Each structure stands twice: as structure tokens, then as C-alpha cells.
Amino acid sequence: MAILILLGLIALIVIAGLRVIDQQTLAIVETFGKFARVLTPGLNWIIPGVQRIACLMDLRVQELSAQVEVKTRDNMFVTLPVAIMVRVLPERAADAYYQLASPQEQVKTWVLNTLRSSTAAMTLMNMYEDRDELAQQMQASLAERMGTYGYEIVSVLIDQPTVSEEVQHAFNGVIASERKREAAVQEAEAKRILIVGEARAEAESQQLRAEGLARARTVLAASLTEAIAQAKGSGISEQDIMYLLLETNRLDTVKYASEKGKLVLMDLRAPASQAGLQIPLD
Q1: pLDDT per residue over 17-70, tens digit each?
Q2: In Å, what is the CA distance from 141 to each residue of 67, 82, 92, 157, 251?
Q3: What are the strands of the beta sheet with 34-39, ordered from one edge?
Q4: What b/e sequence results for 88-118 when a residue is b if at least 16 CB atoms lie within 10 Å of its CB, and e otherwise?
Q5: With contact defined as beta carbons under 8 Å apart, do 19 and 45 qualify?
Q6: Residue-wise pLDDT tens digits, 58-102
Q7: d(C-alpha 118, C-alpha 136), whole Å
Q8: In this structure, what are the phi and psi dihedrals at residue 78, rounded to the nearest 5 degrees?
Q9: Rounded CA separation 183/190 (Å)
Q10: Which of 88, 86, 29 is nearest to 57 (CA)?
Q11: What is the mean pLDDT of residues 111-133?
Q12: φ and ψ of 46, to 5 deg
């Protein structure tokens, strides 16, 4: 009978000491208030009345959010939404439990201090453009500090900075002015290229016209030389030949002006016989 009672007590003690630990969870076990060991997921046993589970540590990645107000180098007060992904290192679970009294609040405090020191040398424009670099700096700083307490910083995300409406309006005005200035520079450059191109085209056109005129004069001079030589061979004097050429040019000019212009031309020159040109009548 006594043996049955003893076996029953042992069974009760065994059953009372059984503990089931869920997946992605660790349990901190204390013996009379002193750390004893860490229970892993599955079925575990502790000594009833002597040992107890002081805490269950969640190994999943947790998100810590904070709204951090910082001051930039150009004296702008900016609110940065920060999200920190952190988890407990399984091999450092005891340190994570015993070394930090309030992990979430302490992490937020460290984030605030790190951000303020990093953004003090940045302008508002830099903060908008270099958020990824700022997040990397924060992650490196927090990873080194939190690693000694049994926590791993998985990632740090910094959302778009938030400023007052007046500052946002002024900021947008600056950006718009810069875009207008860039557009004006591009437009001026396009006009310059167009003007240079037109000037080059005009210069080439004038050069071609000059070359054409020079060739035409060369051909004209050759034809006149040949005509004068033939006229001399026919017995016409040089004075008469010169007058004939001038008269021909004058008549061609009158004809061209009457065809192309809107002027009424009257030829008031003396007849050829009065000018001394001897024209045979027979």
C-alpha cells in the first residue's frame, strides 16, 4: 500500500513538472530565483516547487516603431518614422531576459540618440535623399550595441521625413525653382545650338553662292573675251564693242527689273546713233 502511495506521489510530481514549449519560443528556468537553464520547443520537465519558468522568450522577428523628432543642420525640425526589426538570439536568450529591463523602450532611446547624432550634420534635402544610408548607419550602430544584450537587429527602415505644412510648401517651392532654372538652362542651350546651326548654314550658303558667282564670272569673262575677239576680227573698233556691251547690260537690267519688280521704268537714254555708235545702213 505504501509503495502504491509513493508511486502515486512520484507520478503526480512528474506530471506537475511537465512543460510544453511552443515552436519559436524559449523558456527561462530559475531554481529558487537563480537562472538554471533554457527550455527549447517541445516537451520539457522542471522540478515542481523548486524550479519555475520565469519568462517565455519569443524568437520571432518583432517590429519596434518610433516617431523620432530631430533637428537638421539647416535648423529644420523633422519627424522621422522609424521601424526596427529585432529578434532574440537563441544562444543569448538569458542575456536578453536578464540584462534589459524594458527592451522596447531602451531600443527606442538608443534609436533617438543615434538619429540625433547622425542627422545633426545633414540638411533637409540630404535627409530626403540619403534615408537608406542613414538606415544603414543606424543598423550598424544598433547591431553592435544590441548584440551584447542578446538581440539581433534584422533591419532598420526609415520612412519619409515629415515636416510642417509651411516647411513642406517652401521645400516644394525650392524644388520647383530649381526645375525651372534647369528648364531655362536647357532652353537657352537649345536656342544657342539652333542659332549656331543657322549661322553655320548661312555661312556655308554664302560661301556656296560666292563660289557659284565666281565661277559664273569666270565663264562670263571667258565668253566676253571670245566675243570681243570675234568682233575685232569682224572689223568693229574697241570703242564700239565697249559701248555695245554696256548697252546690252543696261537693257538686260531694265528687263530684269521690269519682270521682278513693280516699278515703271522709262528709258531716257539717247539713241545709239546720237551716242556716236556708227551703224551701217546698207
Answers
A1: 899 999 999 999 999 989 999 999 999 999 998 999 999 999 999 888 888 888
A2: 18, 15, 19, 14, 98
A3: 34-39, 25-31, 51-58
A4: bbeebbbbbbeebeebeebbbebbbebbeeb
A5: yes
A6: 999 988 888 888 877 877 778 888 888 889 999 999 998 998 888
A7: 11
A8: -125, 140
A9: 10
A10: 88
A11: 79
A12: -125, 165
For 158-203, how does the pLDDT look when each residue is reduced to its tens digit (9 = 90+)? 888 877 666 666 666 777 787 788 888 888 888 888 888 888 888 8
Report the percentage of the chain scoring pLDDT > 70.
85
pLDDT band for position 143 (cuts 50, 70, 90):
confident
* Rounded-to-integer distance, Cα 254 and Cα 214, Å: 23
- Whether residue 151 contacts residue 89, with contact meaning beta carbons closer than 8 Å, is answered with yes
Q: What is the 3-state secondary structure (H, E, C) of the chain?
A: CHHHHHHHHHHHHHHHHEEEECCCEEEEEEECCEEEEEECCEEEECCCCCEEEEEEEECCCEEEEEEEEEECCCCCEEEEEEEEEEEECHHHHHHHHHCCCCHHHHHHHHHHHHHHHHHCCCCHHHHHHCHHHHHHHHHHHHHHHHHCCCEEEEEEEECCCECCHHHHHHHHHHHHHHHHHHHHHHHHHHHHHHHHHHHHHHHHHHHHHHHHHHHHHHHHHHHHHHHHHHHHHCCCCHHHHHHHHHHHHHHHHHHHHHHHCCCCCCCCCCCCCCCCCCCCCC
For the record, the C-alpha cell of 73 comes out as 543642420
Whole-structure pTM value: 0.53
- Helices 103-119 and 131-147, interaxial angle, to 10°? 140
- The rounded distance, in Å, linking the Cα atoms of 61 and 221 is 99
CB 80 within 8 A of CB 116: no
